[in-house]
Every structure is written in C-alpha cells, then in structure tokens.
Design brief:
With 289 residues, this protein is α/β, with parallel strands linked by helices. It has a single domain, classed as Rossmann fold (3-Layer(aba) Sandwich). A hairpin with a 5-residue loop joins strand 7 and strand 8. The chain binds cytidine-5'-monophosphate (C5P) and magnesium ion (MG).
C-alpha cells in the first residue's frame, strides 16, 4: 500500500487500524481531505549537520539584530524551559503556565531589541533554517490537488512564512496561524499580536473568530502532523471529523517518550528528518482508484 511505512524509523502500535484509516482517506477522496500541520520540528528539521536546527524563535534569538546580552538571556530561557516543555513526567496542566511564562519573557526580550521588519528576510536567509527532506513534493502535491494546508504554529509567524516563501512553496492553499509581530509606522517591532500561542494551547481556544475550519466543513478527512504532545489537539476545531490520521515526529528523548507517543499518534517517526512517509501516504491517497 505505502512502501515508505517499511522504513526503519516507523513505529506503529496498531498497524491494522492505521491501514484502515489510510484506506478510508483514499476512498473518501481528495475533495474531503485537509492537512493540519505544526511547523517547528515538524515541517522544519530537528537536526542538521550533526547539530540542532533552529526553531523560528531560535532564528530570531541568535540573529545579528539581537544584542549579546539579549542573546544570552534568550538562551538562558531556552535552557530553563525547553526541558520542561518536553518532560514526559509532567502533566500538561503543570506545563501550561510555565510555557506562557517562557513565551511572554522571550517576546518581551525580543521587543526590547527594536527589530526592524525589513531585516526579517535577511535574518532568515542568513540562518540555518531547513525544511525536512521531501518538503517540495509535500507542498507541491497538496497545492496541485487543492488540498488546504493549515500550519498551526507556536513559533513566530513572520519568520516561518519567510522560510516557506524563500523555499518557493508558500502557495495559495497554505494558511498559517501563529504568533505574529506587530510593527509601528517606522517598521520597528512593538509587540506580538494576540492571542499568545504556545506548545500546549494549540486548539480551538486560539482560533476563535478565524472561521477557518468552519469554511472547510466538508473536509472531513484529516492528516495531522506534529512533533509535540501539544500538537495532538490542533484539529479539535474541525466541526466534523470522519477520518483522522495522526503522524508524530519523535525527535528528542526518543526512548523516554516512545510509549506516550505510540499511545497518542497513529504513526510515530523516530529520528526521521524526512517527509518520506507523509509523501508516500499522500501519493497513495491521491492515486486514482
Ligand atoms: O509546537 P511548535 O512547534 O509550534 O512550538 C514552537 C517551538 O518553538 C517549540 O518546539 C519550542 O521548543 C520552541 N521555542 C523556542 N523559543 C521560544 C519559544 C519556543 O525555541 N522562545
Ligand atoms: Mg513543533
């Protein structure tokens, strides 16, 4: 059915169930399909050249427009809060207020840096931002088949949009909800627009008023892509879900987190820097029956 599912990086707890969902997605047809995806560490790579790849926040935090003191403070925040974000032994209730603290402090520091709107393209160009291997086929397949792609990100919207723009895949079927910067008349960052999106509130609570999923009410087949336990609620605002396939990238602390990921995601991709499996599933679904 999908040869990519034989890759060594693939873990599935209930293979029969997964085959059933994929078969239904194909039977329901392209017109009913939509894709909902996280951005950082899901569409973008986790590792590159033996090092960690930057998140959209990291790209800004380490760029030349941030003072040395600002860089240090932002890095200290990352070292304090990231282990909390991915800790499998803390509940989401425990994590939520701490994530709000992290994002709020980081955004305050960024605002102090007088970042200019016109610098963003150059910051992204000079960064080590990298989309996962196979991104072109992924975006192209969705675009050619008019399948809406919703990118739901707790990262920085202006940065991630620029990454996909520079990769030449920011097509008309792509919609992004994320944390966007607001600039004054001189083009200087003054604040981040609300509502604040962090790892663990990626659900309908921050989509109120967008009407996005309501417009797509006939799209009842969902492929959800994420890398965090917080990404599992991204489709909660879809009015009627008939079939949903959840694919999770398990990038970090693989051994410790495997159990929880296998409980929650239908397909878990361990240390897989590619979109091969996603592309294989799409190719199968999009093949004329
Ligand atoms: O869930 P999502 O991928 O949208 O979350 C954004 C990512 O950005 C998280 O993985 C988090 O570790 C990272 N982050 C960061 N710096 C911040 C806030 C979040 O690198 N200040
Ligand atoms: Mg992510």
């Amino acid at each position: 059915m999908v040869p990519e599912l034989e890759k060594a990086t693939v873990r599935i707890r209930q293979p029969e169930r997964v085959r059933g969902i994929i078969r239904s997605l194909r039977e329901q047809g392209v017109a009913k399909l939509q894709v909902i995806s996280d951005f950082d560490m899901t569409l973008s790579r986790f590792g590159c050249n033996g090092r960690r790849c930057p998140t959209s926040h990291n790209i800004l935090d380490t760029s030349r427009v941030i003072s040395e003191d600002g860089k240090k403070k932002l890095k200290d925040l990352l070292h304090y809060y990231y282990p909390i974000e991915i800790d499998p032994n803390r509940t989401l209730e425990e994590k939520r207020p701490l994530m709000v603290e992290w994002w709020t402090k980081a955004h305050e520091l960024l605002v102090q840096q007088k970042i200019h709107k016109d610098d963003i393209a150059q910051i992204v160009r000079e960064s080590e931002a990298m989309l996962r291997d196979g991104f072109k086929e992924f975006f192209d397949q969705l675009h050619k088949n008019n399948i809406p792609l919703f990118i739901f990100s707790a990262g920085v919207g202006d940065i991630l949009e620029e990454i996909i723009r520079q990769a030449n895949v920011f097509y008309s079927n792509v919609n992004v909800v994320s944390n966007y910067m607001d600039f004054n008349d001189d083009g200087v960052l003054t604040h981040f627009k609300g509502p604040l999106i962090h790892t663990y509130n990626k659900n309908n609570s921050v989509l109120q008023g967008t009407g996005y999923f309501q417009q797509l009410s006939t799209r009842t087949s969902i492929i959800l892509l994420g890398d965090s336990m917080g990404d599992l609620t991204m489709a909660d605002g879809v009015p009627s879900v008939e079939n949903i396939l959840k694919i999770g990238f398990l990038n970090d602390k693989v051994e410790e987190r495997r159990g929880k990921y296998l409980d929650s995601y239908d397909i878990v991709l361990e240390s897989d820097e590619t979109l091969d499996v996603v592309n294989g599933i799409l190719r199968y679904i999009l093949t004329e029956t």
